[in-house]
Amino acid sequence: xxxxxxxxxxxxxxxxxxxxxWGHGTTSPNPPVGCVVLDGDxxxxxxxxxxxxxxxxxxxxALAQAxxxxxxxxxxxxxxxxxxxxxxxxxHRALIEAGIARVVIAVLDPTSRGRGGAALLREAGxxxxxxxxxxxxxxxxxxxxxxxxxxxxxxxxxxxxPRQGSLTGDGTVLPGEIDTLVHDDTSTIMTTAxxxxxxxxxxxxxxxxxxxxxxxxxxxxxxxxxxxxxxxxRPYLDAGLxxxxxxxxxxxxxxxxxxxxxxxxxRLSRLNDGLRLSLxxxxxxxx
Length: 287
Prior knowledge:
Layout: H1 5-20, E1 34-38, E2 44-49, H2 58-66, E3 74-79, H3 91-97, E4 102-107, H4 117-123, E5 127-130, H5 134-150, E6 154-160, E7 168-169, E8 180-183, E9 198-201, H6 209-218, E10 223-227, H7 234-238, E11 244-249, E12 263-271, E13 274-281
């Protein structure tokens, strides 16, 4: 059975999306990006993902692995190649110099300065395709894109629901892709993050929630976990700044406190020690 070029590139993009997830929680303020290089016959000859700010981008890793096999090949990348000099050279130039003939992109980069990387690649005579598996690429890029649009980090609250008494913050239920953990002195701050996130105590941030998130944004945070309980969380809820809630319910009689109507239950899982509840603000479909 012959596999078409479209099928090869779709498979390669899914692989690139999976690679990009390895950068979750470590690349901020940069986006987590994955790249696959195919040779002229459609065989995978290079792959890579961006690991952290200041280190090579996904395209650079993939091209280095591919070597001369990249000449005349295809680069499949989850985000439009960059076109500006920062701590690393522009990726569109590296693709041109490697002799890449075709570039397949999932998501266009909203931070492109002037003409974007896709336009510059076309000007160099490279065939460029945009929009392959956009929704699937958003599984990884969604929080970064949302943080850009909202000009603040995506905020997830981790909490534990006691049988009685006040809520406590719980970092153990926060998603592994957070890059910054904010806690109070009474919360469990161990997280599921593969690499330890930046840790801040709530008392070191401005009291106003909007100002606190602005400060975190300026520091490079894009996905923040709040392990905060009691009255400390209420200003963030009242301001509509909590995008996601991850809650651990160890008792069958425990229940969530009253939340604004804009939150909906998106997942309910049985654990060895209780239930895991996931809630999302209705206009926060980013993770």
